[in-house]
Design goal:
The protein has 406 residues and is of the alpha+beta class. It has helices at 3-18, 46-49, 202-209, 266-274, 354-367, 370-379, 381-389; strands spanning 32-35, 44-45, 50-57, 68-75, 78-85, 88-96, 101-105, 118-124, 128-133, 138-143, 148-153, 158-163, 169-173, 182-187, 193-199, 217-220, 223-226, 233-238, 241-249, 280-287, 291-298, 303-309, 315-318, 320-322, 331-333, 342-344, 347-352, 397-403. A five-stranded mixed sheet has the order 1-19-18-17-16, with no helix packed on it. The longest helix is centred in the N-terminal third of the chain and has 16 residues, at 3-18.
Length: 406
């Protein structure tokens, strides 16, 4: 893509983002407001939110090199990890609880049980793996070993899937006009169409069809939540009804309401955009009984994370994570490639590149005297063991980060 086309594309994305202010109605008193203090969002110390960390080095072979991580599901003592190469050629790599490689699910093709390009996957009913595909309107059902069971065909492109109550399944799709501007579809127990709902307006259509978010759904205490690109509100889904549950308040960097109109020409749009600070947009999130985890970015491609305590209302926000528990002073600046995309219960599943750990390990080893290093090794035996065998070109290390109350 040349520079001119790149600028046009970025401007198009800015128009899409700025066209949506999604604060819930003032009459709705049931949502939780999460304030994002971006001016203070330089860094977060591990000690502020981490109770403990378990390291799981993911075995590296020629057959399982992990690229960008899109989803991690832990089930039957195995990690199912969706990995892509530049958002394409998606595969599912399966590792056991200790990180040993088991097998991969890669059925690209045009025949029965195959897909052109996997868009997403989920585990249904604890025994079925369902994929959705780009370009061929297919969804496939496999068992947890990746063996093909059944093909499902739809007349629209599905972006993401989510198990729902009573063995039902929610689909988030991009073919709004064909389905009377309803963004969600509910499938019944035999995967037949049950209903379409979550109606959006014409302005929101462009936002939903331009996928940037890493995930649209989250589940907590059997409640399903939904968010779509450039939307500051996380909705709770109950049957075919939905209501605002959390409003992410980006303050002066939120999406201004009514800034861009249908009558604006390219010069008017450009002038309006240039007068704004870079706005922020939710990229990924997850909800637990005690916390709301948020990952978001801005137009300068800065990536941030926030943790919100549902018990105290306290928020931590930062774009750099500082280690003050294990390798003091070691830092990791967040990017789209290393931000955690989801959680497992109360623990963040964080994939960290080997270089981050190796840098901290080597610096600490050089800076400590022999006695201090021996004490450190006895205190953190698994950390030392993992780092001593780690190589820079290995697969990421999966961290299970247990959050403490704050």
């Amino acid at each position: 893509m040349n520079k001119t086309n790149t600028n046009i594309f970025l401007l198009f994305l800015m128009v899409l983002q700025l066209s949506c202010a999604t604060a819930p109605d003032k009459e709705d008193l049931h949502y939780v407001r999460i304030p994002i203090e971006y001016r203070k969002a330089s860094s977060i110390k591990l000690s502020e939110f981490v109770e403990s960390v378990d390291l799981i080095p993911l075995e590296t072979t020629e057959d399982n090199l992990i690229g960008e991580v899109g989803r991690i599901v832990f089930i039957d003592n195995n990690y199912y990890i969706k990995s892509t190469n530049g958002r394409q050629n998606a595969k599912i790599f399966v590792f056991d609880a200790n990180g040993r490689y088991q097998f991969k699910i890669d059925h690209r093709g045009v025949g029965p049980g195959e897909y052109i390009e996997m868009k997403d996957f989920q585990i249904l009913q604890d025994s079925l793996l369902m994929t959705v595909s780009n370009g061929d309107y297919k969804s496939n059902l496999y068992d947890l070993k990746g063996d093909f069971i059944k093909q499902l065909e739809f007349r629209y492109n599905i972006k993401e899937i989510q198990p729902f109550s009573d063995c039902k399944v929610l689909l988030y799709h991009s073919n709004l006009r064909e389905l009377e501007m309803n963004a969600l579809t509910l499938l019944d127990t035999i995967f037949g169409i049950s209903s379409h709902f979550f109606k959006v307006d014409k302005v929101a259509e462009a936002k939903l069809t331009c996928q940037i978010n890493a995930n649209a759904f989250s589940v907590c205490d059997e409640k399903v939540y939904f968010n779509y690109p450039f939307c500051d509100t996380i909705y709770q889904i109950a049957g075919q009804k939905y209501s605002p549950a959390y409003y992410i308040d980006f303050g002066n960097k939120k999406h201004p309401e009514g800034l861009i109109t249908e009558k604006d020409g390219i010069l008017e749009i450009e002038a309006k955009v240039r007068r704004l600070e870079s706005v922020m947009s939710l990229y990924t999130y997850d909800i637990t009984p005690r916390f709301v985890y948020l990952g978001f970015d801005d137009f300068e491609r800065n990536v941030y994370m926030s943790l919100y305590s549902l018990q105290t209302g306290k928020v931590f926000t930062g774009r750099t994570i500082i280690d003050d528990l294990y390798f003091p002073g070691n830092r990791m600046t967040l990017t789209h490639n290393n931000i955690a995309v989801n959680m497992d219960k109360e623990e963040i599943l964080w994939h960290v590149e080997p270089g981050v750990l190796l840098e901290g390990y080597e610096k600490s080893r050089k800076s400590m005297g022999e006695n201090d290093w021996n004490v450190f090794c006895k205190k953190h035996p698994k950390l030392v063991s993992v780092c001593s065998m780690l190589k820079a070109d290995d697969n990421p290390v999966l961290l299970r980060v247990k959050l403490k109350s704050f």
